[in-house]
Amino acid sequence: MRKNLLMLHTVTRIVVFIILAFSVFLFFAGHNNPGGGFIGGLMTAAALLLLYVAFDVKTIKQVIPFNYTTMIAVGLLIAIGTGVASMLNGDPFLTQYDRYVTVPVLGELHLTTALPFDLGVYLVVVGVALLSILSIAEDDA
Amino acid sequence: MNNLVIIPLIIPFIIGIIMVIFRRNTQLHRWLSVITLFAIFTFSIILLYQVQTSGIQTLQLGGWQAPFGISFVADTFAVLLITTTSIVALPCLVYAFHTIGKDRELFYFYPMFLFLIAGVNGSFLTGDLFNLFVCFELMLISSYVLISMGGKKVQLRESIKYVLINVMSSFLFLIAIAYLYAITGTLNLAHLSVRIAEVGQDGLTTSVAILLFIVFSLKAGLFLFYWLPGSYSAPPTAIAAIFGALLTKVGIYAIFRMFTLVFYHEPQITHLIIGILGALTMVLGAIGAVAHSDIRSILAYNVIIAVGFIIAGLASFTSAALVGSIYYLVHDMIIKALIFLLGGTMILVSGTGKLTEMSGLIRNHPGLGWMFFIAALSLSGIPPLSGFVGKVYISQGTFEANLYWLGAVGLITSLLVLYSIMKVFMNGFWGETLLSKEMEKGSTKGLLLPIGFLTVITIALGLGAEGIYIYVEQAANALLSPELYINAVFGGNPIP
């Protein structure tokens, strides 16, 4: 018997966006405040997982058509790519470059190559968390 | 600064990741993995040349000076082992092309293989204790996947044991690191060495040294080897060969590094314990090798005997003994891969690992038989082959250090090694031929090439021992004088 999950669905639709926004905030806060790629990635994974729990795997797969294995690989490539880039530049592996840039709306920003590294971590964490949960969920035996 | 130092770690890592993206294309995986190993080999040869001409090469990651950042250090000892790693990995890989099967290839066999190589190379090159832990984990997690890949019943049973014991030892490793950090306030190996030399190696530091020794013994199969025979018999031949050749050697390398660079002040305690455990390992391993009549178990116990023998060189702690240990370490990586591939081929052909059920393989497989014979002689250290030089130097070193009992145990176990491996040869290859060509369970097509390659390497290493002597001697001298390592890492900067 299929229950009517109207309340759950409605609340999920609102809450998921709040969690996603918070995870992005955590991701960008990492340099000067607690946060960073790992916890941001876990929070994003939690938001997506809420979708999978509230709806079902098939529906969400149509909505979010990511291949999580590729996501892990791309994340690793981005992270290691920042290291290799500094190597190609003639500096030691994983050297960090930073620059103060004035952006029209946001004002002066301190941009560093630690951000793409963290983005790599973020993608790997999201990918690993969802891949392991979904492969257990889809296991029939 | 020399970015080449980290290349052997990141090349297999990046290529492995790219392979994960193109999962379906097995042919691409094969080509990429072979090219990667060739690239590592080339770079390690260049690195060997650089270390030879201009001293120990270092890299401070991110440009942060020595005790504050992570250092990567390439001295002759590490570079020799990296070169050997790429030489050994190549035939195992080619062997895997023919035997590993489509299922495993599709489930990321080659990426895991390369991650394993990356972890091994990282462990050899790192100059930081916590980074060593991370590289160990990279290597171990890949090996967990490799050992359980395929999901046969015996593999699952053995991989549970393997994972449990390694999780336990990693946990002890972390605790040891925590103690050491509390005592010295640093994790950089060179800085650790300086700090411990300053304040002296007191009782607490020695206890931590012994805790670290237990951890690495668990990984290396020194005395605490009871998990090893089962785990190394479970996976397919190509994987067992790379495990036998590389994994325990990383533990041995870590023991050498710690007890020549950091904890060398109380040899009458630490090195004596190392010597006693080495002797016990040899005796127990020899008993196991002689007692079993299953090819895989005999080979696994031979891995253990070699670990005890190499460690005997460290226990003696003389120049000759260390030269012997390095020679034997290089030889052992090659010969263990070779003997595992040979044993695996015998099992493949006859369909069983039990010596009582096979006989007379030499009639249909003369090449395989004589290569096994050469490998067996090399394993036990018969003069023109590669095992001889290391054995002579280690025995000389133990006698010089007045550890006659240790040298005697080493020589007696050599005989038992010869007996155990000749038992395999005589039972398996001589006698009445039980299986005709058509009745055999598998064909050796394509498998003799990697085996032949390794056989040529072991002969060449025996005949050309003089050619690599300068490198081995340099590595041994660097191990005996830690200040070379420390000066290279700090590069003239003040030591905080």
TrEMBL record, chain A:
Keyword Transmembrane assigned: yes
Alphabetically ordered keywords of this record: Cell membrane, Membrane, Transmembrane, Transmembrane helix
Pfam families: MnhB
Keyword Cytoplasm: no
Subcellular locations according to the entry: Cell membrane
Parts of the chain that traverse the membrane: 12-30, 36-55, 67-88, 119-137
Protein name: Na(+)/H(+) antiporter subunit B
Taxonomic lineage of the native organism: Bacteria, Bacillati, Bacillota, Bacilli, Bacillales
TrEMBL record, chain B:
Major location category of this protein: membrane
Keywords: Antiport, Cell membrane, Membrane, Transmembrane, Transmembrane helix, Transport
GO cellular component, one term: plasma membrane
One Gene Ontology biological process: ATP synthesis coupled electron transport
Pfam family, one: Proton_antipo_M
Record field: transmembrane: 6-22, 31-49, 69-94, 106-124, 130-150, 162-184, 204-228, 240-263, 269-291, 303-328, 334-355, 367-383, 403-426, 447-472
Cellular localization per UniProt: Cell membrane; Membrane
Topology term for the membrane: Multi-pass membrane protein
Domain NADH:quinone oxidoreductase/Mrp antiporter transmembrane, residue spans: 127-416
Any one GO molecular-function label of the UniProt entry: NADH dehydrogenase (ubiquinone) activity
Family under the similarity heading: Belongs to the CPA3 antiporters (TC 2.A.63) subunit D family.
NCBIfam families (alphabetical): PRK07691.1, PRK12663.1
Protein's recorded name: Na+/H+ antiporter subunit D
Source organism of the structure: Anaerobacillus isosaccharinicus
